[in-house]
Amino acid sequence: MSFAKAQELLKLAMMATRRSGVSLDQIMEEFGCVYRTAQRMTEALEAAFPQTETSEGDDRKKRWRMPSRHVAALLSPSPEELAALSNGIAQLEQAGMLQEAALARNLDRKVRALVPPEKGTRLAVDEEALLEALGHAARPGPKPAVNGGVKVGHWAAQNQAT
C-alpha cells in the first residue's frame, strides 16, 4: 500500500467517525472514485479497523461507522493546520471580528489540548517555524545599544538627512 492510499484510509476512517457514519455515495463523492473502488475502500477500512460497524441508514443505504476513540490517536493536527488556524485567528482580529476570533482561539486551545504531549512539543516548534516563514511571527533578537549622549559627527548627520 502506498502512502497516499494509507492517507486516504485514514481520511475514510475519520469520515466514518461521523454520527451517521459514511455511505458509498459519500465515499465516491469525497474521493472521486467509482462504486467498486468505494467498496474496496470500505473493505480496507474493515480490515484495518475491526471495530468498524455496518448498519443500514434511514435512507436504506449501508453505512460504515466507527467510534472516534479508535482513530483519535492517529489524527493529530499537522503543523500546517495549526499555523493556518493561528493565521485565521490573526486575520479575524485584524478584521475587527473579535467575537469570532475568541471562538476560534477557544477551538485552537481545545485542539491543542487533545494533542498527545510527546507530539505537542514537536508540533509547536514546527508551527512557529511556519509562522516565521510567513512573516506572522518573529523571534526577539538583539537590538543595537545607542548611547544618547554620543554626538553624531557632521558626515553621519548629512548621510542621515539624505
Walk me through what this model shows.
There is one protein chain. This protein is mainly alpha-helical and 162 residues long. The chain folds into 2 domains: 72 residues, Arc Repressor Mutant, subunit A (Orthogonal Bundle), CATH 1.10.10.10; 56 residues, no CATH class. It has 7 helices and 3 strands; from the N terminus they run αβααββαααα. Strand 2 and strand 3 form a beta hairpin. Helix 2 packs across helix 3, helix 4 runs antiparallel to helix 5 and helix 4 packs across helix 6. The radius of gyration is 25 Å and the shape is elongated. The model has no long low-confidence stretch (mean pLDDT 80).
**What structural class do you assign from the helix and strand content?**
mainly alpha
CATH structural class of the largest domain: Mainly Alpha
Q: If you average the pLDDT, what whole number results?
A: 80
- What distance lies between the first and last C-alpha atoms, to the nearest angstrom? 65 Å
- The tally of domains stands at 2
Number of helices: 7
CATH fold type of the largest domain: Arc Repressor Mutant, subunit A
Classified in CATH, the superfamily of the largest domain is Winged helix-like DNA-binding domain superfamily/Winged helix DNA-binding domain
- In CATH terms, what is the architecture of the largest domain? Orthogonal Bundle
